[in-house]
Amino acid sequence: MILSTPLVIAIIALVLALLALTAVVITARKQSQVIERQQQRLMMLTETASDILALKKQLEQQNEKQDGGDFAQTQQLQQSLELSLKQQLEQQNQQLQQTVAQLSQEQCALEQKLQQLSEQDPGAKLYQRAAKLVASGASIEEIMQECDLPRAEAELLAAMRR
């Protein structure tokens, strides 16, 4: 059986579109995993911040109970803890901002690629519609009528999909 050139081109376009869609799905999954990891890091930082605030509160209570000599040491420890927390939070914030910016750029690029692929071959849309009909269980006659395809092409699409 010899395939016509437009059919071969349409099949190639359909395969390329499927590959692009697969790449988009895989990238979206990776992006969601990265976002989930960043959210976990943020939760850990929040817990650390809560712990440090609790320690700060304890130190303040101890300061109230102790005399002036211990107060200076406690205050110095408190400032050290606050500085450490602030540095950790700033570092994590920068990392999150970079990750979000990178993911946004990747998403835009993938959306553009998908748009370009969908606009490439108008004839491919006809074959995509036919492929959807085959996947939904349509008969050869229904595919021929809906997509204005010759019987041989409709049968070929059905054979490829089933």
Query: Average pLDDT across residues?
Result: 82
β-strand amount: under 5%
Largest sheet: none
Query: How many β-strand runs?
Result: 0
Number of helices: 5
Distance between the termini: 18 Å
Order of helices and strands: HHHHH
Name the helicity range: over 70%
Low-confidence stretches: none
Shape by Cα distribution: rod-shaped
* Class from helix and strand fractions: mainly alpha
Give me the Rg, rounded: 30 Å
Question: What would you say this structure looks like, in words?
Answer:
With 162 residues, the protein is mostly helical. Helices cover 91% and strands 0% of the residues. It has helices spanning 5-65, 68-120, 122-135, 140-147, 151-161. It is rod-shaped, with a radius of gyration of 30 Å.
Tell me briefly what this model is.
91% of the residues lie in helices and 0% in strands. It is built from five helices and no strands. 9% of the residues are buried.
Key phrases:
single chain; 162 residues; 0% strand
Describe the SSE topology.
Layout: H1 5-65, H2 68-120, H3 122-135, H4 140-147, H5 151-161
